[in-house]
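Annotators were shown the component list below and the corresponding predicted structure, then asked to write short factual statements about the assembly.
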Amino acid sequence: MSGIKDRVAVIGMGCSKFGERWDSSSSDLIVEAAYEAFEDAGIEGKDVQAAWLGTVGSFRTGQPLAAALKLDYIPITRVENACATATDAFRNACYAVAAGIYDIVLAVGVEKLKDSGFSGLAVAEPAGSDVNPPVPPPSQFALAATRYFHQYDIPYEDGKMTLAQIAAKNHHNGTMSPKAHFQREVSVEQVANAPMVAWPLGLFDCCGVSDGAAAAIITTPEIAKTFRDDYILVKGLGLSVGAFGIMRNDWDFTHFPESVRASQAAYQEAGVSEPRQEIDLAMVHDCFTITELIIYEDLGFSPRGRASDDVSAGTFSLEGELPVNTDGGLKCFGHPIGASGIRMIYEVYKQLQGKAESRQVKDPTLGLTHNLGGRPGSFTCSVALFGTRD
Amino acid sequence: MAVAAGIDCLRNQNRDRIDGLLFASTTPPYAEKQCASIIASALDLRRDIFTADITDVLRSGTAALKSALDSVTAGSAKQVLVVASDNRQGAPKGESERNSGDGAAAFIISDEETIADQAGFHTITESLMDTWRSAGDQFLRSWEDRFGIEEGLERILSEAVSGFLDKEELSLNDISKIALYSPDARRHSQLARQLGFREEQVQDPLFGRMGNTGAAFPLMLLANAMAEASPDQLILTVSYGDGSDVLGFRTTSNISRTRSSLGLSGYLDSGKVLDSYETYAKWRDIWITDSSSRRPQAQSPSVTAMWRESDQNIKFYGAVCNQCNYVQYPPQEVCVECRARDDYTAVRLSDKPGTVFTYSLDYLAGTVDTPLVIAVIDFDGGGRVLCMMTDREIEEIKIGLNVEMSFRKLRVVNGIHNYYWKAVPVRRPLGVINL
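Structure shown to annotators:
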């Protein structure tokens, strides 16, 4: 197993404005993101040899990508893999290039959630016996929060404050993100006192629901050199899918094994042994504040049960030791499911190129993205690592 | 409720010995499709048992009792489970709604180790329109109550009870208790007096606590009368509806044995009070709510999937691996612990006690039982399930709370009543229960 490290490069990226894009269709969002990526890379649609389209519910096949961009009878595959959809589309695109099948490929993630008519996430389940309880995403992660507070003996008020600090941090970063859905500060008190959605998670513990798309142009490092100097390299790609559901009595709900395994796989490929020291910034799946808290531990940034201390110390703020969700995260971008992963890569790409404007982290060389979705105990998780060129 | 009464009745009983199940109700969920089969499955009874629904009349509870007694007497069955359950719906804020209650009772009819033996039967049949409901009617209809009381209830019950006494050559004084149907409290005491019973002979109708529970009502009073009885007492149960059935039972010495069931008083004593009429009305689906902006309308469940999963969903079977003994729910073709393939034994989890491992209180997911409590339950002896919790006070929910499973209707879509199990806090009766 040779791994993906330094075998593929990203030479162009695009990201649509995220938000309630009432006047834009899924195809419109794809065009917005893909054309920014084409322009950034200095290519045209006709240069793309193969493409992967990540979407959970906006399209059933890859064909709409061809229709939107007028791609020239090239192979296109639709990828759907829960909240890791976009990153998995990107991952498959990387493997095709690394295998030497294609020189230039396109990965696009898109989701149009705001046509459903529902304020929450409305994804139809396949027909079944339909006896499973409705466990909307807030409740899925509330189960983890309840147990986390219990296991580490954290008083409710203290736990809420820790979570609120995470939300406030991401909202602060979002004020510097022109493409974010939400671009305003919220105070720790506002977050902690917000109306309950799924106890113990309140309104501001939850990310928003948005429309959006993001795109990446992937090639080999050799070809990348002919396009630009500041391409970035893929250093590691980990994907882990939970197998056991909640059927095991010994799963504690306070760690997500899928995050642990996916990050370990990516770290191994990239040669990372001390993630907290070696990684300069991370975009993680903050669908809920408790998720981000647990991710700190699962990815090896904080010791088990001690992530709260790092939150209080400001470790993960923009100026901190390991800035997390520098663009505001899902908290500010919302979570158009099929787009989020590539939106995260877009931020890492810009940061590594030094083009993140007022959000810029000082001289980063290694960045991480992380997605987690599904149901407790049977999540799908992707972790990807990116570095500057040697 | 029928399943709950059945479980309570079957505590410490061998379920495999039940040869038949009769379900009585005026409010079966289906107009065409048997309910006794659903109940039998939820109770995990044998497949080769006789089942029937006896419906459409308030007298159906005693009709089921009589049929079961006849089967056992005739020898066609050794043990028959009779379950009567009703939840009649009067028009909102009307008198019949005010007087009505929901309830269920279950009896095992057997020819051995009885707690009471059949002691006489008399019946009157007379078609009379005092209350009725046509197919498609949501609410009960009734004629002027004075007509129904005078020409129906009073005249027919008087004829039925005196007919019983004459036939059995008994006098009023031979009766220890009468479990008497009546539509409401005032008519109940009036009727008992008119029939000639002294106050101490009349089983407390509990109208203030449970209301008129329809077809289940005389059986619930009979259950309570037996719970309070001494050996060698004669108890009458009298039903009403297009005539009347009078059934006599004489208690045996087994009546004093301590039983493990909660019984009627156990359920009443562990009841909870709804906070408002609005909450009740939402539960009964007579309050129009706008949930359309919250979630998509539920799609029809797949009947094929329901059938395929009936062991895990209705019988609530988990599996214990034959190789490593790991208990898992739902049953897995490949063991979650040792990966042994297709080598497990079904294990019933519906009557296993459990504890809350973690939970959430969801304020957006539900429109009736808000907040919707989603809980992860660990069963004693292994097995874990993610399910809804109901019949709970928010303040009592905590990690480690003791719960039991309760068979509930989740929703009705496409005319399909989809049942499954929810966790409820263990009912704690105030006193020791005998029955």
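Statements collected:
1. The interface with chain B takes residues 116-120, 122, 124, 127-136, 138-139, 142-147, 150, 195-201, 244-249, 253, 376 of chain A (CB under 8 Å).
2. The longest helix of chain A spans residues 156-174.
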